[in-house]
Design goal:
heterodimer, A: 399 residues, mainly beta, Immunoglobulin-like, Sulfite Oxidase, Chain A, domain 2, 2 domains, five-stranded mixed beta sheet, five-stranded antiparallel beta sheet, B: 106 residues, mainly alpha, Cytochrome Bc1 Complex, Chain D, domain 2, globular
Chain lengths: 399, 106
Amino acid sequence: MQRREFLKTSLVASTVLLGLPLGASQIRQPLDNYKISKYIFPEKNPLIAHSDRPPLLETPRSSFTSAITSNKDFFVRWHSPKIKTHTFISGYRIAISGEVNEPLYISLDSLKNDFEAVEITAVLQCGGNSRSAFVPTTSGIQWGSGAMGCAKWRGARLKEVLKKAGLKSDAKWINFNGSDEAAFYKAPRLIRELKIDEIDDNIIIAYEMNGEDLPYLNGYPVRLVIPGWYSDSWVKMLSEIRVTKDYRPLYYMDSAYTVPDNETESESHDKPAKKRKPITTVNTKSYIGFPTRDTKVKANENTTLKGVAFDGGSGIKEVLISADKGKTWEKSKLGKELSKFAFREFEYNFQPKHSGKLTLMAKAVNNLGEEQPFAHEVLWNKGGYKYNGIDSVTFEVVK
Amino acid sequence: MKNIVIQTLLILTVAFSTLNAEYSKPVKVPSITYPLEFDKNFRVIQRNCQWCHSFGYITNQGKQSQEFWRASVVKMRDVYKAPITKADEEAIVEYLFKHYGNGKLK
């Protein structure tokens, strides 16, 4: 039981709904009022359904109290309307072709039995997660902050699979493609390329998620797992790996899923940057799972705030909590580190003194010393990618 | 001849039963109605937008400027290859800005 003196000042602070200074920048807290759909998708709990076709499902805030996001709560994002709904599993193959000594067609059985099974717990986050924070509104789905999750992935190392095919000496790029299809033949495929030297032991072709088959909507039967990177690179329903000598221009790497290739990765609405780079490494972020905007907390009683924090792989050093719009901060208690790439739980005990609205904010700092900016300090980019502003939750304290 | 027919039938039966046994994960994604405003241009929206995506993609965007909606429609044609004619482009932008606009041109 800890009494927090500074909470006494919080009543004033919390009168501003979002607890943020107004003015300067137009970037705001991401939308936090999307409703959970009454429609239930296969292998899923009720989630926020932005679209049924292609399926776009967002995880509600209340799920982010735990380092592992259950498969049923895990967010879903597809780009193409045609997603195979039945798979003849014993006939499923991942084709490996191009600059290899021996083209391979690897079955699911072979992936499970002929390669060492490795496990890694890692966060999967959409590059456009929290996009609704950006003003002017950017193109793309206006996600709240639930286009992310953390799971324990199990599969075969990509390196070992490539080794089996044998890379030729001039092989430089590895292309990944899934078996979903666009409505129009000429529309770009969501193909991602990795440079050979970007492939490390952490990258796996996963066939299990939290100890079960991947849910259909999360890419059954296999998807690429690239710990520390945004999800556009984690190709779902992976069916083709093509090894090439030269980089192949790709819409989803040259235009979509890019940020300006400058120091601040930002640009203005009138003057978009020409030189761009693919979004790759996830930045430092935290998110409060409890309380939520619907929570009612009792005055003069102990309550525990809970949330998750993560970054692109250095690990979380600390998560700080503020009750006065970020003027002063106090350390939260961190949970166990499941992996450098996983959600790190944090919790913070508090006891509000007055009834009324109360705002608490969370700020993560990673092991490189990088910390989250305030929402209004986040810089704009036209795709609305990589938002990582300090989280803020306003809830009600009752007598 | 009769033998061949029986053999074929046998093969088909075996093949079919294998398929049945091994097709797994029968999944059906629910169909959600995302209600849109109705007017004279609604049919243009119906015939152009739903090739690739639900109306959820439209309502999710919030109220936006005319320029925003124009850019979205042009992107659907130029990038995703939706066969939107010039006349339909005008009707779609007019519809979106009328019902899902923020009143600003830019």
